[in-house]
Amino acid sequence: MSDADFEFKEPKITGLGGWLIVVAIGLILSPFWIAFALLTLHLPIFTDGTFALLTSTSSEYFTPGFSLLMSYEVLGNLILFFFVVYLLYLFFSKSKSFPLFFIYSRVGYLVFILLDIIFAKVVFPSETVFDPVIAREVFQAIFGAAIWIPYMLRSKRVKNTFIS
C-alpha cells in the first residue's frame, strides 16, 4: 500500500469551541458590564440631584447640552444592552447572521465611544475628557474590532458553525 492510497481529510472545524469560547464569554459578560455602568455611573446622576442641577436653567451650574449628552449615553447603552442580548440569541442558535451582526456590534461600539468623547468635549470644553479610563475604553474598542472582525471574516470555525 502506498501513500497515494490514503486520502488525507482535514477535520471539519465546527461548533462553539476554540476562539469562539472567548467570544461567548465576552458576550455573556457584556450585558452585566453594561447594566453595571448604567446602575453605577448613570443612575446616580439622576437620583442624587446632579442631573437637575446641571440641566436647570435657573441653576448656577447649568450646562447646556448636558441633558442631550446623558440621553445619548443612556440610550446608547440601552441599545447596546439589547443588541448584545440579541447577539447571544444569534450565537447560541448558530445563526448565519451572527458573524455580520457581531461585526456591526464591534464597529457600532467604537463609533459610540468616539462620538461620546466628541459630545462630552462639546458640552465640557474646558474639561479633559480623554482621561486614562476613557483611553483604555477606546483602546479596547479598537483592539477588539481589530482582532474580532478579521476573525469573524476568515475563521473556518465561524464559517462552519454559523450556517443555519
Rounded to the nearest angstrom, the radius of gyration is 22 Å
Are there runs of 5+ residues with pLDDT below 50, and where? none
Can you count the beta strands? 0
State the distance separating the first and last CA atoms: 41 Å
Question: Given the C-alpha coordinates, what overall shape results?
Answer: elongated
Please bin the fraction of helical residues: over 70%
Number of helices: 6
* Biggest β-sheet description: none
Descriptive overview:
The structure is a single chain. This protein starts with 19 loop residues before the first helix and ends with a helix. The radius of gyration is 22 Å and the shape is elongated. It is an all-alpha fold and 164 residues long. 71% of the residues lie in helices and 0% in strands. Helix 4 (98-123) runs antiparallel to helix 5 (132-154).
